Amino acid sequence: MKQKRSMFLLQYAVAMKRNEIQRLEMLATREENRLERAEKFLEKDATLFDEFLRENDRSSVQAMKLAEKETKIKMEKIIEIRDLTAQIMNIKSEISKFEDTLQHYKIYKDFLYKLSPKEWLDEQEEKRLALRKAKEPGEFIKDSSMATLLGDRGSGNKSKTALLWKEVQSLKKPSKVSRFGQAPSSTQSLPQVGQASQPSLYSELDSRMSSSTVPSQEDTDSDGEDLALYFTEPQQLLDVFTQLEEQNLSLIQNTQEMEETLDDLNVTLKNTQIRMDREVNMLKQWISTIMMSISKEEESAAELQLKARVFHFGEYKGDQQDMLLESLNHKVLDVYRKCVGTQQEANLGTVQMLTVVEHQLDELLENLERVPQVKIEQAEKAKERERRMRIREEKVRMQKELQEERLQRARARAQAEIKKKRGRRLICRSRPPVIKIKEESEHTMMDKDKEEMLFFFT
């Protein structure tokens, strides 16, 4: 039983495997058929793609050819445009040159018209007015005849203008071009018609322009009659120039003479002004010196008057007056010796010595006025410097003396015996303040005299 069962199982397994093999073979055949179909479709697609690529290559080659043609045409047009622009620039430069020359000629013409006499200009103006009056009726007749001609031709020209307008619009319409640059047959006939009609259009336009430009040329010819000039030979201009040169030379000579006279007047004016300023300054200095001398004399007169009053009231005694006179005589003698010297001393009185000193002082003042102000200022500065140095030296000497006195006192105090005070310190009773009599006038006068003596005689 076991063997039968195992045999049954083996047979069943073999049958199942056979069925599976058959099923797989069927699937393989189906897949092979499907692959064959796909290969066929791929081959068809490849052939179609190759045809597409070939057509694309053909179209690209044709497009390249068209592009090359268009670029060639474009380059030719650009070259033509450059040539035309160069020609235009040359023409413009020539026009500008001609305009410059025309401007120069106009300037020369205006200059010649300005040089021409007034009588001739008046005659030319009268002639020009007469010509204009004569031309006005002829121009009116021409205008009326042109208006009638245009009115007659208006009805006939309307149809012509309509046809020309249609032809121009047909020329402006662009022709349709195919992918490969081929135009359709329906549009090829229109350019031929336009080309055939272009000469007629241009001829009519040229005829109209020529008819419109004729009057302008006639106007320029008629204006050419106004270009008459007074000067027909160069000798006339040379004569005018010689006359103008003579006039200019005479004017230049007159101006030079006037300038010379003006220079002379300016020099004399400056000299007189300098001289007057110098005299004014000298007079001002004289006035200042006189005022100073007057003030000094007034002060001395006031002092002498005061002294005379004092002597008159008997405040001083005779002995004191004699002593004062002797001291005054000695002082005047010292001043006389220092100012004049000991050579002319011959028992002169005080008044005589004072007169001599005064004369000497006047001479010195006169000489001082002649000395430049700069030197006087320098001398005053030097004297002031010496006086300050002297005062400084005196102050230093006085300080040294005071310092020595203080040192001596300090030494004396140090060497003295020390005394001890015993008992109560005595306090003195306060005293009333002493009334001091002011004698400032005499001291101030003495100080002034000392300063003057130090300033003038040191």
TrEMBL record:
Location(s) in or outside the cell: Cell projection, Cilium
UniProt name for this protein: Cfap100 protein
Gene from which the chain derives: Cfap100
Top-level lineage group: Eukaryota
UniProt region (Disordered), positions on chain: 175-224
Sequence ranges of Polar residues compositional bias: 183-201, 208-217
Residue intervals of the DUF4200 domain: 2-118
InterPro entries from the UniProt entry: CFAP_domain-containing, DUF4200
Gene Ontology CC: ciliary basal body
